[in-house]
Design goal:
heterodimer, A: mainly alpha, 10 helices, about 0% strand, elongated, B: about 260 residues, mainly alpha, two-stranded antiparallel sheet
Chain lengths: ~270, ~260
């Protein structure tokens, strides 16, 4: 009879990690989940904008007189908006069902993370780092590179369109998180697609200039982060002047991001502190 | 003879009606979800019909006639609405009832047979799709996109689209294994929406792509609805209707066969 020698368990570090290290741990969890599902996200985050480019940008663009959109070809006109709307569509996947599901007792990942030394705000930061930094900087870059083969960029400044897309993502992500954390009934989840994600994607000056919309809807367009991002991205890819000075667009998106982070933090702390 | 046929039909409809009734009761908790689905197609109409339509102005069709782009795109988006309402109901919802909620296992302990289930689900999907079609046609009328009373024939034309996708959706619900399969179905549906002749005439597509488009069920629906809505009737419409009806019958028959095989164990 042999005796098995069991090693003494290594000392477990029970001190709370620094906010940055904690965010990184929560981020790594999201990355681990992403490695299982990434292939299912290719359609919305990479293929769909390219299909839009072929069908609408090139197909419908053949019937559009460039004079009606300030002398730009239609494909050049929609390319920057498509890069930014990828960011919005990805948030529809990353910041609605996963957030709502995170609190559920059927295996919610927020509840699981709460059982570790992570604080609620670390969990929020990690998820936001994944959805509003990692996703736009990878997927929007791929889309931007593929769109380059359509010859829609005026200069190398087009690289900055990805930064504009990331700003849109950062401005919108915490608000979606706030909303998906606040609701109790999953039947309401689809509402955010119908009444937020889709209207924002379609009416933010991506496919047609926002100035064409009826006057009473204009203030709503100015609220849309995608409109601000598209104006910035279009300045980068086509060299046209944005509606406002660039710093004003950036300031609005940054303000939205910061305010949204505080709102989301408030709800997350209320739901995860127990 | 006709009395027997009548009572046979009535007996058959009564059992599928029970399935319909079950769905109605279950929907009352989530009616806002079902009703607000009509909004999606209207958003597409406003964005592409009116927004992009203002940039395009008029479009010259392959036969040489000229129409405004808004009235060209609107019927295609209507056809899309007829497809989406029915497909969401018959594929995803039937899959959930079949694989997750095990609703049908219980129902088959009653006198209902798989054929009644399939028929009942199709009635229900048609009602849901019908609300979307109705809402869309009302908005088209309010914005002056219906040229004549003949345009209202687009509504029955949409029923053929709904029937075809009810059959397809039911079959897919029995074939699919997991939720990720539905992501690919939606990808395919969106590709049909973008390339099924919704936004530009198929004749303008590259030659290699045209045969692929002719296979798409949505293309036949769009051609049918658009022809009626623009008042351009052609004998080809009977071919479109026949193709859609064939898909409906084949889909429903395969679906009830597969349901029976999976449920009678």
């Amino acid at each position: 009879m042999t005796t098995t020698v069991v090693d003494a368990p290594a000392a477990v570090d029970r001190t709370a990690p620094s906010p940055y290290a904690a965010m990184l741990r929560a981020f790594n969890l999201q990355m681990a989940l992403y490695r299982h599902v990434w292939h299912g996200t290719i359609f919305t985050s990479v293929l769909l904008p390219i299909l839009y480019m072929i069908s609408i940008g090139i197909g419908v663009g053949a019937y559009i007189d460039p004079a009606s959109i300030g002398g730009l070809g239609y494909a050049e006109f929609i390319a920057p908006g498509l890069i930014c709307s990828v960011a919005v569509m990805m948030l529809g996947n990353d910041m609605v069902f996963p957030v709502f599901g995170g609190y559920q007792d059927w295996g919610g990942h927020y509840l699981a993370q709460r059982a570790t030394p992570l604080r609620p705000v670390d969990i929020l930061n990690g998820h936001l780092a994944y959805a509003a930094v990692f996703r736009p900087f990878t997927n929007c870059t791929i889309v931007a590179v593929v769109l380059a083969f359509f010859g829609v960029y005026a200069s190398w400044w087009a690289v900055l369109s990805v930064v504009a897309a990331a700003l849109v993502s950062a401005a919108l992500a915490p608000w979606l998180h706030f909303w998906a954390s606040s609701i109790k009934n999953d039947a309401n989840l689809n509402m955010i697609f119908r009444f937020a994600v889709m209207p924002i994607s379609l009416f933010s000056g991506v496919f047609f200039p926002a100035s064409e919309m009826p006057g009473f809807l204009q203030p709503l367009v100015w609220l849309s982060p995608l409109w601000h991002g598209t104006e910035l991205a279009r300045a980068a890819t086509a060299g046209v002047a944005p509606a406002l000075p660039p710093y004003a667009h950036i300031a609005y998106l940054a303000a939205l991001a910061v305010a949204g982070w505080f709102a989301a933090r408030h709800v997350v702390q209320r739901r995860l502190n127990f | 003879m006709s009395v027997i046929a009548y009572s046979a039909a009535r007996a058959s409809l009564r059992s599928s009606g029970a399935m319909l009734n079950r769905n109605w009761v279950a929907m009352r908790r989530a009616w806002i979800l079902v009703v607000s689905g009509a909004v999606e197609s209207l958003l597409f109409l406003f964005a592409f019909g009116f927004g992009v339509g203002a940039l395009v102005g008029d479009i010259t069709l392959p036969d040489g006639s000229t129409v405004s782009y808004t009235s060209y795109v609107a019927p295609a988006i209507l056809a899309n609405a007829a497809m989406m309402g029915v497909l969401a109901e018959t594929s995803i919802n039937v899959f959930a009832k079949f694989k997750w909620m095990k609703v049908y296992d219980g129902i088959l302990n009653t006198p209902l047979r798989p054929w009644d289930l399939a028929l009942g689900e199709v009635w229900w999907a048609l009602i849901r799709g019908g609300t979307y079609i109705g809402a869309f046609v009302v908005v088209m009328g309010l914005f002056g996109l219906l040229d004549s009373w003949w345009s209202l024939l687009a509504i029955p034309a949409c029923v053929f689209i709904s029937l075809a996708f009810a059959g397809i959706g039911l079959t897919l619900a029995t074939v699919f294994r997991d939720w990720t399969d539905f992501d690919w179905m939606m990808a395919f549906v969106f590709a049909m929406f973008l390339f099924g002749g919704t936004f530009t005439p198929v004749e303008a597509y590259p030659a290699f792509a045209q045969p692929i488009v002719y296979v798409m069920p949505l293309y036949h629906g769009i051609e049918l609805v658009r022809g009626l809505s623009l008042g351009q009737l052609s004998p080809m419409m009977f071919a479109h209707i026949a193709y859609l009806l064939a898909l409906c019958c084949a889909g429903m028959w395969i679906a009830q066969r597969r349901l029976a095989k999976a449920l009678y164990k």
